[in-house]
Amino acid sequence: MKEGEDISMSEEHTHHVGNYTHTHSAEHDRIVIQRLSRAIGHLQKVREMVENGEDCSDVLIQLAAVRGALASTGKYILDEHICHCIVHAVESGDMKEVEDLRKAISQFIN
Description:
Blueprint: E1 12-17, E2 20-25, H1 26-51, H2 56-91, H3 95-109
Antiparallel strand pairs: 1-2
Helix pairs in contact: 1-2, 2-3
């Protein structure tokens, strides 16, 4: 999918977090999908560069763009998760969700 293409999806989707259901807007999903599409585009460019025998330094720079795009997407998802899912979980006393987040952050930053 290319940036700017129409993304067909419902207005929102829900998922269960602990004992409650949380809803994400279509705008949230659109932003995440656009960011992932950008990362995929960078990664496809890396493959093309390797296939074409391009300079290793240029390939490494493009790989840095892949990492940056993925990190940016992860930060966006993390921020949304904390502001919505985790806030609701803490308010309802569901500390398991906080522990799950701690584990996910540990894996995300390693």
